Amino acid sequence: MRAFAQAIDLYDDPERIDAYLRHHREIWPEVVEGLLRIGIRGMRIWRGGTRLFMLVETDDDFDPARYQDYAKDPRTAEWDALMRSFQTPAPFAKSGEWWARMEEIFDLAGACTTAKGISSL
Asked: Which pTM value belongs to this model?
């Protein structure tokens, strides 16, 4: 299993943020099916103010370049366009990047295997 972390911002508008949260509480089944179909096995999103942080767990052979393949279906493309209407790239996003990829800098499980006297998790 592989993991990817990404960030994006929401527009700073309480009504739009509430609508975005409401949509995620009532996610369309086609979106869930589309994400599973492309090899995503887990997805969690956290919010701090207007910043969103997403952790995606995938099959080992998952290619991040094909992430948007989930939106090839008309219904999932509609969801994708709707969600983008609430979002704006984070200030540190690279040119052309929507959700900004984040670099992993620490893994507790990995640290436990290399630290003396600490059993692994």
From this structure: 0.86
